[in-house]
Amino acid sequence: MTHSPENHKPAGEQEWTVHIPAVYKRPLDRYHQPVNRRPALFLLLYVAIVLYLSLYPWRFVRNAGPGALYWIPLFNRRVIVDAVLNLVFYVPLGAAAFLSFHRRGAPAFLGAFALGAGVSFFVESAQLFIPTRSGNLTDLLSNAAGTLAGIVIAAIGRLVVPRTRALYSPGVLLIALWLTWQAFTFLPRYGPAVDKTHELLALLILALLAWRRQFRTAAVLLLIWLATDELRPFRFQRPPQPFSWLPFESWFVGALESYYGIIFGKLFLYTAILWIERSAGMRWTWALVVPGAIVLTGELAQRYLPGRTPELTDLVLLLAGAVMLYLVEPARWDNKDQA
Fold first, then answer.
1. What pLDDT, in 10s, does the model give residues 224-282?
2. Domain range holding 88?
3. Does the residue 121 lie in any domain?
């Protein structure tokens, strides 16, 4: 009896079988998932923020408004700026919605636009029943235009950068937050007085982003700065101010337009602190708990500081920065999805 060469095994030789995990047998399976995880998670976070801010103070009264959406003519500068801001705030929503679809083309385009326009229509309709808000067709059109702009930007980005994973990086996130902060800081009527210490610190962080050295030293110094900044101007007095447990309450109670620059400035700084802590080798738990404890302690101490507003907003901004940074960390997603 003869044996073919391919079937012949030398005596004593053991046959080995390599078992490949099923998850890697078909590497293209993950591309058949209906959505990209990172853009979809960001989209959920962003829509939640839009709904919270747009429907504040969440008190609805029957027939509080005119009963139907109406047009607001662009008759002055403030109305025009408000329309532009509504457009800008829906750009990330449109881009994230478009990038959430694995399949490109008309279905992704129409689905993303329908989602953005649907969210805006729901918000504007609900605002008719909120005494302090006003739902109108002008905002609806601006939001729809912002959604469309976001979709176009995302589509162009996919063409220019086929592997859009290159856009998912802490550096891109920090630069985008810094540019948004600067845009509001220097926009008349919509920016607070420029805080030179915050601006200088931001430039040092951007330099560190390019240099990528001395993260441990920078992490310690930034945490010390955070504690110091929370306790300015170091003049404690009684009686204590009330603490606001409702995020962004001071935004609506005070001058709304002056808070844009403050909020985006804090969002950039908090996200940068988290990034530097992570780059220094700190685990996520401690990277979030340490600055979180400093911010919470500082906010409680601000009850005794004149000119400060003790509230929960800063902790929410810190958490939002942590979520965004968590989503753009490349190591976590290398084997999970292709955006």
1. 999 999 998 899 998 999 998 888 887 777 656 667 888 899 999 999 999 999 999 99
2. 33-160
3. yes
Spatial distance between the Cα atoms of 191 and 202, rounded to a whole number of angstroms: 17
Residue 65: band (very low, low, confident or very high) from pLDDT cuts 50, 70, 90: low
> Which of 321, 315, 304, 308 has the alpha carbon at shortest distance from 245?
315
137 burial via Cβ count (<10 Å: 0-12, 13-18, 19+): middle
DSSP secondary structure of 311-328: BSHHHHHHHHHHHHHHHH
The two tokens of residue 52 are 């919270």
DSSP structural state of residue 107? H
Q: Is 45 exposed, middle or buried (0-12, 13-18, 19+ CB in 10 A)?
A: middle
Contacts of 302 (CB under 8 A, 6+ apart): 230, 231, 241, 308, 309, 310
As a whole-number percent, the residues of the chain with pLDDT over 70 amount to 79
CA–chain centroid gap for 287, Å, is 18
CA–CA dist 305, 232 (Å, integer): 8
Quickly list H helices, the chain. Answer: 22-25, 37-54, 77-89, 91-99, 106-126, 137-160, 170-185, 196-211, 215-230, 249-253, 259-279, 284-301, 313-328
Q: Please tell me the least confidently modeled range out of 19-23, 64-68, 156-160.
A: 19-23
Cβ atoms of residues 59 and 73 within 8 Å: no
Q: Judge if 130 and 235 occupy the same domain.
A: no
Provide the number of structural domains found in the chain: 2
In this structure, are 241 and 290 located in the same domain? Answer: yes
Sorted by sequence, the CB contacts under 8 Å of residue 25 that are 6+ apart come out as none
Q: How far apart are CA 276 and CA 316, in angstroms?
A: 19
Q: Which two tokens stand for residue 223?
A: 């945490």
